[in-house]
């Protein structure tokens, strides 16, 4: 049996005929299995959606409770038969609720990983390697240049800058789902106990993380009339707002961005980022390679990102690999740093 006996590519994305479902489809379908809540993977309008409880909750927050006609909660590690296949959700370590989806047919197992990371994150369950015959992986940072330090090291740079410039506001650009909450929690774990201020677009998801048991400490929504009084504070905002007039109202703001793309200094300069923090919710090159080895696959499909480099590396390891060149994925894109994870 081969991967193509279980999965096929369609204009809507990855489809499993034996189960009659799509994984992270890019357009409305009859039945969608969703790996996590980022908008390039979790879209509204499907008739049926199966995902972990946190992912369904996050879709509620983002799209409203009518985002689907029918929903099914996937319990991590619990096998469920859909048509002729058995599916199981496993932690992906990307954001709260993120999961890989294992699909088995006649003893052949394919794992669709969605997005994932291998580094420690106090706001979500860690990645769980799943032995498989075929592995479907992302390659957002699938080049050897992408090697990420730990998030704590990068967060200390922010705290050092705040100590050095105690009268200036530090505006931290971070994606509203996953990255923002991770950065807040890392700062808390480093001992930062002052209030952290939020752009209005960050509030609902941070509130949800709190209800889900992730302690983020004291958070305050930015009052537009009070921006001039927030000198010396840390303010989280979408990356796109760093160059907006909204940002200019703070006292001598220092622009900060947390993204894997900050590994490329030219990218930071292009975006006008004064303090780049290399923090990603995706696997870097060493983690991608280590994961492919660890799951023991003989076939590798690469869905998006720097697919060609990872395909070449896999071939050198004796793994049959192919790039899928799927369009519509990749929140850390040039067009949408707001989606930087």
Folded structure, characterized:
It is an enzyme of class 3 (hydrolase). It is a single chain. The protein has 341 residues and is α/β, with parallel strands linked by helices. The chain has two domains: 3-145 and 281-336, Metallo-beta-lactamase, Chain A; 151-277, Rossmann fold. The protein has eight helices and 19 strands. It has helices spanning 53-63, 151-164, 179-189, 203-211, 245-248, 265-270, 285-295, 307-316; strands at residues 8-10, 13-16, 21-23, 31-33, 48-51, 70-73, 80-82, 85-91, 99-105, 108-112, 134-139, 170-173, 196-198, 219-221, 234-237, 254-258, 275-277, 299-305, 320-323. The strands form three sheets. A seven-stranded mixed beta sheet has the order 7-8-9-10-11-18-19, with helices on one face. Strands 1-2-3-4-5-6 form a six-stranded mixed beta sheet. Strands 14-13-15-12-16-17 form a six-stranded parallel beta sheet, covered by helices on one side. Helix 8 links the parallel strand 18 and strand 19. The longest helix is centred in the middle third of the chain and has 14 residues, at 151-164. It is globular, with a radius of gyration of 20 Å. It starts with 7 loop residues before the first strand and ends in an 18-residue tail after the last strand. Mean pLDDT is 94; it is low at 331-341.
């Amino acid at each position: 049996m081969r991967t193509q006996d279980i999965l096929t590519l369609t204009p809507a994305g990855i489809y499993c005929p034996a189960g009659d479902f799509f994984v992270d489809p890019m357009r409305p379908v009859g039945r969608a299995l969703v790996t996590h809540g980022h908008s390039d993977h979790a879209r509204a309008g499907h008739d049926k959606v199966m995902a972990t409880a946190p992912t369904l909750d996050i879709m509620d927050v983002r799209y409203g409770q009518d985002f689907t006609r029918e929903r099914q909660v996937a319990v991590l590690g619990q096998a469920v038969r859909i048509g002729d296949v058995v599916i199981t959700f496993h932690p992906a370590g990307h954001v709260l609720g993120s999961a890989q989806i294992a699909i088995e047919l006649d003893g052949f197992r394919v794992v669709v990983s969605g997005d994932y990371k291998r580094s420690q994150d106090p706001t979500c369950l860690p990645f769980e390697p799943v032995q498989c015959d075929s592995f479907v992986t992302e390659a957002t940072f699938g080049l050897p240049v992408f090697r990420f330090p730990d998030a704590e090291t990068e967060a200390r740079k922010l705290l050092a800058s705040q100590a050095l410039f105690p009268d200036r506001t530090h505006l931290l650009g971070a994606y509203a789902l996953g990255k923002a909450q991770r950065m807040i929690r890392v700062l808390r774990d480093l001992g930062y106990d002052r209030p952290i201020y939020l752009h209005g677009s960050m509030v609902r998801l941070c509130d949800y993380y709190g209800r889900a048991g992730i302690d983020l400490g004291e958070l305050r929504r930015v009052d537009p009339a009070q921006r001039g009084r927030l000198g010396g504070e840390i303010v989280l905002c979408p990356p796109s707002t760093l160059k907006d007039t909204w940002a200019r109202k703070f006292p001598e703001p220092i622009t900060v961005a947390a993204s894997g793309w900050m590994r490329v200094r030219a990218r930071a300069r292009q975006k006008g980022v004064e303090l780049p923090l290399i923090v990603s919710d995706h696997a870097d090159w060493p983690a991608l390679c280590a994961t492919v080895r660890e799951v023991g696959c003989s076939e590798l499909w690469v869905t998006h990102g720097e697919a060609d480099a990872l395909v070449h590396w896999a071939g050198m390891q004796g793994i049959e690999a192919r790039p899928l060149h799927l369009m519509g994925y990749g929140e850390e894109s040039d067009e949408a740093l707001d989606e930087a994870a």
